[in-house]
Amino acid sequence: MAECRLAWFATHPIQYQAPLLRAIAATPGVDLTAFFFSDFSTRAYVDAEFGRAVEWDMPLLDGYRYEFVPSRAPVDRTTFTRPVISGLGEILTARRFDAVLVQGWSHYGYVEAAWRARRAGLRVLLRCEATDHVTGSVGLKRAAREALVGFLFRRVDRFLAIGAHNRAFYLRRGIPAERIGAMPYCVDNDLFGSRAQIADVAGLRRELDLDSRPVLLYASKLTRRKHADDLVAAYRKLAEPRPYLLVVGDGELRGPLESAAADLPEVRFLGFRNQTELPAYYALADVFVLPSVDETWGLVVNEAMTAGCAIVASDQVGSAADLIRQGENGFVVPARNVEALSAALAATMEGGRYRGMGERSREIIETWGIRENVAGLVDALTGSQK
C-alpha cells in the first residue's frame, strides 16, 4: 500500500498497547505517530482499584514515535475532562496526516480529534471497547452518552471491532456491517507464551509449597465487580481433595476474602504481581477463572490462554464470547451463579480434562493476536486511502 501517515490517539501509554504500537510502527506503508493526553502511566501512580501504587515493569514508549499532547496540569488518571489538553488543531491541520485513529469518547480529546480530522479532510478510524452487555448509564446520562456517540459516529469512516460484543454495539446504532472491520483485543501472545514456556514452574511450586494437585488461578483486581467472593464460595463446594486456588491481585476486598477463606488451606493470596511476573503463574495454573460482572473484555483471559490454561468465565466477561468454546477450552457460566461456577470448575477437573482444554486454548489464541490487529488496521487504511 502507499504510505499512510497515521495519528493514533490514546489517553495515556497502556502496557497492552505498547507491543501493538511497535508492530504497527514496523509495518511497511504505515507512518505512525502516537499522541497521548497524559504520561501518568509511565511512572509510579496510585491505582485506586488495586489500592496501591503501581509502576509497570514493561517498556511503554519504546519502538515507536510518540508525542504528549500539551496539557494544562498533570493528572494521575484520566476522565472525560481531565487533563485539559490543547494543540489538536495544529497537530491535525499542519502535520499532513492521512488518517486518525481514536479510541472512544472517554476523553473529550477523542471527540475533538475526530471532529477536527473530518474538517481537515482526513479519514477517521474508531477502535473502542464499548459494548451493551455491561451495565450502562441510565436516564439523562444515557441520553447524553448516546448523543455524544452519535456525534462521534457521524464523523467516523471505518469502525474497528475488538470482538463480538463491540461489533454488536456498532450494528445496534445503525453502522452498516461493511463499514466495520476488525482489530481484536489482544495481548502480546508471543511474549506471554514464551515467558510461560521458560518459567521455572517446579521452582514456583516449591516456593508456594504446592504438591502435585491441579491449580486454579484468579489474577485480577480484588474489587466488587470482579466477584472473587463467588469464586471462593464455588471453590468451597468442590469435593476434596480440592485443587489449589491461587489468588493474584490486590484491592479493597482482599482482607474480607482472606477472612472468608481462612479455613481453606489450599487457597493462597499472593498479592499484586507485575506484567513480567504473571507468565510464571499462568504456566503453573491449569484453569484460569474470571467470574466478573460488567467486564468489557478481560485481557487476563488472553494472557492465560497463551500459557495453555483452560478458562472458566462468567457470561459478563466480554472476551468469553470470542475466546471460550463451550466444553472445548473451558466453560462460560451465568454471572453470580455460584452453583454453576462450581460445577464448571468440577467439570474441568474431571479426569484431567483441563489438559486438553488448555491445548485448545493455545490453538484458539494463536489467531487472536497482534498479527491480526495489524492486518485489520492495514485493511482499514487501504480502504481509506484517497
Describe this structure in words.
This protein is of the alpha/beta class and 386 residues long. It has 15 helices and 15 strands. It has helices at 18-25, 88-94, 108-119, 139-153, 164-172, 189-197, 201-207, 228-236, 254-260, 278-284, 299-306, 320-323, 338-349, 353-365, 370-383; strands at residues 4-10, 30-36, 45-47, 52-54, 66-68, 99-102, 123-127, 158-161, 180-182, 215-219, 244-248, 267-271, 287-290, 310-314, 330-333. The strands form three sheets. It has a seven-stranded parallel sheet with strand order 5-2-1-6-7-8-9, with helices on both faces. It has a six-stranded parallel sheet with strand order 12-11-10-13-14-15, sandwiched between helices. Helix 1 links the parallel strand 1 and strand 2. Helix 2 packs parallel to helix 3 (108-119). It is elongated. The model has no long low-confidence stretch (mean pLDDT 96).
Annotate the secondary structure layout.
Layout: E1 4-10, H1 18-25, E2 30-36, E3 45-47, E4 52-54, E5 66-68, H2 88-94, E6 99-102, H3 108-119, E7 123-127, H4 139-153, E8 158-161, H5 164-172, E9 180-182, H6 189-197, H7 201-207, E10 215-219, H8 228-236, E11 244-248, H9 254-260, E12 267-271, H10 278-284, E13 287-290, H11 299-306, E14 310-314, H12 320-323, E15 330-333, H13 338-349, H14 353-365, H15 370-383
Parallel strand pairs: 1-2, 1-6, 2-5, 6-7, 7-8, 8-9, 10-11, 10-13, 11-12, 13-14, 14-15
Antiparallel strand pairs: 3-4
Helix pairs in contact: 1-15, 2-3, 6-10, 7-10, 8-13
